[in-house]
From TrEMBL:
It comes from Poecilia mexicana. The keyword Signal applies. This is Hydroxysteroid 11-beta-dehydrogenase 1-like protein. GO terms for molecular function: oxidoreductase activity. Gene3D superfamilies: NAD(P)-binding Rossmann-like Domain. The lineage of its organism: Eukaryota, Metazoa, Chordata, Craniata, Vertebrata.
Length: 287
């Protein structure tokens, strides 16, 4: 058994290193002047992505609900080197806002090279207590608006040989307690965009899709929820943001950040009872 486990771990590590070494290299200059729309950019990972794109000299449109904060982020983007930094307040729970935002970016930037779908609506962290209405609303914000924006932007991305970048989560691949509505929206994203990837490839489309699987990241909204509840390590938002940008720019299908999230997703189907034991014991919960 011990030998088997050693061989297994060795094989996973070897496969991981081989993947890293053969990954396409990132050329920062490719983002100079790139036309980028980032959603959920008033805070957290989206805000950090806006700053990275700005440093690379991109032309950026950012969106979220809070206009004043968007204005401040856009000003900082200009000071960091963005060729353009525009903002548009929008609520992704409104039926027409996803299209309105994409149309704004297409008009102001003259097309799109990157559509980075990142926003999430605020959600509860706790045992499921039957809030179907909240789940329906969250599906609209975290999932339906993503597919609506992607569809609206596809013709422009097709023309520009552009990229669609979807920010997802380990909780979209591995069921966990306390985040049922959120987790459902992320599973939906993985299913939809994973399938769209095949259709675009079969149609020989110019558009690349990147699906980014993140572990716990130290944004204020995430840390406020898990503080005192779990000891799972949180990783820096600025590094997560840079990894997402590089994955999109190098047109890779998958990002797993931090790296061990990939190992966890690989072994969860082989040893479900071990993984389930760790999941249930990684939270402080007394019934
Ligand atoms: N942080 C983590 O631990 C973690 C882990 C795995 C995956 N992720 C993923 O990473 C992405 C970013 O997460 P984050 O932690 O950076 O989130 P965050 O800090 O909570 O930011 C969420 C963003 O979405 C915007 N937003 C909220 N409701 C909205 C609505 N109805 N319409 C439009 N925009 C709305 C917020 O701005 P306004 O309030 O101004 O609207 C904000 O800019 C998400 O896709 C998340 O699932 C995060």
């Amino acid at each position: 058994m011990a030998t088997f486990v050693k061989i297994l771990i060795g094989s996973i590590l070897a496969a991981y290193l081989a993947m890293k070494w053969t990954a396409p290299s990132f050329h920062p200059e490719s983002l100079k002047g790139a036309r980028v729309l980032v959603t959920g950019a008033s805070s957290g990972i989206g805000e950090q992505m806006a700053y990275h794109y700005a440093r690379f000299g991109a032309q950026i449109v950012i969106t979220a609900r809070r206009e004043k904060v968007l204005q401040q982020v856009a000003e900082k983007c200009l000071s960091l080197g963005a060729q353009k930094a525009l903002y548009i307040p929008a609520d992704m729970a409104n039926d027409s806002d996803p299209d309105r935002v994409v149309d704004f970016a297409l008009e102001k930037l003259g097309g799109l090279d990157y559509l980075v779908l990142n926003h999430i609506g605020p959600t509860t962290f706790g045992m499921w207590e039957g809030d179907v209405e909240h789940t329906r609303w969250l599906m609209k914000v975290n999932f339906l608006s993503y597919i609506q924006m992607a569809w609206r932007a596809l013709p422009s991305l097709e023309q520009s040989k552009g990229s669609l970048v979807v920010v997802s989560s380990l909780l979209g691949k591995m069921p966990n307690p306390f985040t049922l509505p959120y987790s459902s929206t992320k599973f939906a994203l993985n299913g939809f965009f994973g399938s769209l990837y095949h259709e675009l490839a079969m149609k020989k489309s110019n558009v690349s899709i990147s699906i980014c699987t993140l572990g716990l990241i130290d944004t204020d909204s995430a840390m406020d929820k898990v503080r005192g509840v779990t000891n799972i390590p949180a990783y820096p938002a600025t590094e997560a943001a840079l990894n997402i940008i590089i994955t999109g720019a190098t047109r890779q299908l998958d990002l797993y950040y931090p790296w061990f999230t990939q190992v966890v997703t690989l072994i969860k189907d082989w040893f479900p009872s071990i993984i389930n034991y760790f999941i249930q014991n990684s939270y402080n919960y007394i019934p």
